[in-house]
């Protein structure tokens, strides 16, 4: 008696024949056979893209944050544009952080001071963008270009720092 539980391999696109044993009773229930479809090429491509995106999710973190900020400022602009007036003082926070970190942990190395200033400038620009995006809408003509420049810069800096941090030895903090 042949093994009916083992699936036969057939080439893609060909018709499949299912061998159903004959029922011997008159009151037997009909047999319903469900054959799953193979995924299309588009479904397979999207599955591969999703798997790749999930595997490299740490690499794309700044892009995800930028997209979330774009969406959040758009929703906030639609619901309550006047919150831009409440968010405006937050644009000074990175400058305050730079002054505070300069007093608490003064850096002897010039490269550390440059990185801190660049980070404060990027954060200040992002905060000003967020305030303007909430006030005027994130898709106003110059704000889209600023958002794209900020997202690209953040992503490039993220990739650069992750690569250099992985290759340089760990230093002791005094």
Structural class: mainly alpha
Percentage of residues in strands: under 5%
Q: Helix count, per DSSP? A: 6
Instruction: Please describe the biggest sheet, giving its number of strands, its sense, and whether it closes into a barrel.
Output: none
Principal-axis shape? elongated
Using only CA atoms, what is the Rg? Answer: 29 Å
Please mark out the parts with pLDDT under 50 across 5 or more consecutive residues, or reply none. Answer: none
Tally the beta strands. 0
Q: What is the mean pLDDT?
A: 86
N-to-C order of helices and strands? HHHHHH
Distance between the termini: 79 Å
Question: Percent helix among the residues?
Answer: 55-70%
Short description:
This protein is an all-alpha fold and 174 residues long. It is built from six helices and no strands.
Give a quick set of tags describing it.
single chain; 174 residues; mainly alpha
What does this protein structure show overall?
- The chain is mostly helical.
- 60% of the residues lie in helices and 0% in strands.
- The chain has 6 helices and no strands.
- α2 runs parallel beside α5 and α4 runs antiparallel to α5.
- The chain is elongated.
- The termini are far apart.
